[in-house]
Amino acid sequence: MKLALLDDYQRLALGAADWERLRKRGIEIQVFHEAFASADEAAGKLAPFDIVCLMRERTPFPRALIERLPNLKFLVLTGLRAPSLDLAACSARRIPVSNTGAGNTNAPTAELTWLLVLAAARDFAKAERGVRAGRWHDGLAGGTILEGKRLGLLGLGKLGARVARYGLAFGMDVVAWSQNLTPERAAAAGAHPVTKEMLLDTADVVSVHLVLSERTRGLLGAAEFARMKRGAILVNTSRGPIVDEAAMLEALKSGRLGHAALDVYDREPLPAGHALRELDNVTLSPHLGYVSEDVFRVFYEGALEDIEAWLDGRPIRVMNPEALA
Q1: pLDDT (tens digit per residue) in 284-312
Q2: Which of 72, 134, 304, 317 sits most deeply, having the most CB atoms within 10 A of its CB?
Q3: Contact predicate 173/114, CB 8 Å
Q4: What is the pLDDT of residues 99-148, one digit of tens each?
Q5: Cα dihedral sign for 143, 149, 153, 156?
Q6: Do 209 and 269 lie in a common domain?
Q7: Phi/psi of residue 257, each to 5°?
Q8: What percentage of residues in the chain have a pLDDT greater than 70?
């Protein structure tokens, strides 16, 4: 059998788990370090593999791709869910999908969120590039003091609540909104519940902490950017499609949105020549929210356990049990 480990951009997969256990069982392992350029390339290169291990949703797995993989018998998903994986298509092919733990903490994403807040407030990415190029203060904005400003959180789950605590530590006024937010949950996080409209009208920093779904896709569009305080900061460490990218670009170019600090995008990796790469009032991060050695160890050790259990005929953590019928 052949196993493909996908999207190991940082070449950490083989050191994060004892894959020798599979090699001793005759499993041939191949690691793919680069993103596929197209669905055709993915289909061509993955056609020989019996088992595929996905790193989150880095490579989309829609029905059209699944149907082009004749040898595929088992899928492993690192993390708990991936909206770009078509579970129904896997079930139709009787391909079970097992997931792994999500990691022991949401601290990596929360910490990266705050790094992006600070970087945007002080125009840090542009400043760092300037120093490397031999400049000093040339062309930099004046910078924003966070203390006393309003932090607006779209989503106040476990991750949003942790970010709220960071905001309180910086002396910020923290408000929050989500479709299901209760006053009790907001109070427990030290935030004030407000309407989405009030959050956008008054927040100096807007940070997104919602799960991508049909309810949240395109949640921030042209109308929402028009409501935001002129010069406000947007931080997104959740999922790119929650924000209408074209509307965000227009708001950035017009100055309505003062700065966008982003870890996630509509298409990842962010294509060369993308408009976001050309703007000075943008801080870009390559989807690092969950990226840490500790989290990868949880992912890949869990993936190894999943594969061994499936080989033994006792699959675990199966997301689509109907595929086992």
Answers
A1: 999 999 998 989 999 999 999 999 999 99
A2: 72
A3: no
A4: 998 877 899 999 999 999 999 999 999 999 999 999 999 999 889 999 99
A5: positive
A6: yes
A7: -95, 120
A8: 100
State how far Cα 145 lies from the chain centre: 27
**Domain check: are 229 and 316 in the same one?**
no
Task: Provide the pLDDT for residue 51.
Answer: 98
Catalytic-residue membership of 239: yes
Q: For residue 273, is it left (φ>0), alpha (ψ between -120 and 50) or beta?
A: left
Q: Which pair of structure tokens corresponds to residue 107? A: 């601290």
Tell how far CA 310 is from the center of its chain: 28
Helix (H/G/I), strand (E/B), else coil: 223: helix
Catalytic residue among 239, 245, 259, 305: 239
Structure tokens that stand for 54 in this block: 């996905």
Q: Which tokens in the block code for residue 152? A: 């607006």
CB 268 within 8 A of CB 245: no
Among 57, 224, 245, 268, which one carries the catalytic annotation?
268
Please name the residue that has the structure tokens 């061994």: 308
**Structural domain count, the chain:** 2
Q: Is the dihedral of CA 286, 291, 293, 299 positive or negative?
A: negative
Among candidates 153, 264, 171, 259, which has minimal Cα distance to 162?
153
Q: What are the percentages of helix, strand and coil residues in the chain, rounded to 5?
A: 35, 15, 45
- Tell me if residue 209 is catalytic: no
Q: Is residue 136 one of the residues assigned to a domain?
A: no
CA distance 183 to 33: 45
Q: Which amino acid is at 242?
A: I
Residue 152: HSE in the Cβ half-sphere, 13 Å Cα cutoff:
21
We report the CATH number of the domain holding residue 42 as 3.40.50.720
Relative to beta strand 192-193, strand 173-177 is parallel
Query: Whole domain around residue 65: which residue ranges?
Result: 2-104+291-324
Q: What does the DSSP 8-state code read for residue 138?
A: T
- Does residue 268 carry a catalytic annotation? yes
Residue 268 DSSP label: S
Together in a domain, 28 and 151 = no
Pick the catalytic residue: 56, 150, 259, 287?
A: 287
